[in-house]
């Protein structure tokens, strides 16, 4: 085995007597109320003016304030409708993008992979050459393989394991975790990041955002680091 470089709640208002289902069909929002019909608002305001106290008439400033309040409510409803549309468009775009990735070979952050047909692949990245003690554990925590390797500086270096233990035993397909303890040329502890590489088997559109299944594990779109060719080169034992 070796390593090869490679939002706010919509406000409610008084029912609109002129509202009808037919007229609502042509509107983006289906919320009936005073903000849906300016004529209704004017009717209510005119009624208020007709029935005002002659000895204490409606102040001009109050009249203006009511107009401003109406405009503010109407704008709030339009803003809520616009935000709802944007959220729906974004959700649809995420679902479309996720579905297009089914069958692609992806790299995501992680150390556990599902070995299939005696084939398990990780992707390693380090910013400098290191000496590394690599160990692989089964799902039960048992160490099934260990060895020392020199890992060159670079990103996305394929590390492939054929499922054979140090004694030659062929381990069954399943989940296996890769652990690395590395030191640089001066003997100081160094970091080697691990990513898993596998085929995106399916997409769960019932989740928000959609979840991509890779080797039995679920990941969101923003966790995908890179898409690579299915036949990406990797050197094995």
UniProtKB/TrEMBL annotation:
Protein's job: Required for flagellar hook formation. May act as a scaffolding protein.
Organism: Rhodopseudomonas palustris (strain ATCC BAA-98 / CGA009)
Biased composition (Low complexity): 20-31
Compositional bias per record (Polar residues), positions renumbered to this chain: 1-19
Pfam family, one: FlgD_ig
Keyword Transcription regulation attributed: no
Similarity comment text for this entry: Belongs to the FlgD family.
Keyword Nucleus: no
Positions in coiled-coil regions: none
Keywords: Bacterial flagellum biogenesis, Cell projection, Cilium, Flagellum
GO biological process, one term: bacterial-type flagellum organization
Residue span, FlgD/Vpr Ig-like domain: 113-185
Lineage top rank: taxon: Bacteria
Segments forming domain FlgD Tudor-like: 94-224
Protein name, UniProt field: Basal-body rod modification protein FlgD
Region (Disordered): 1-31
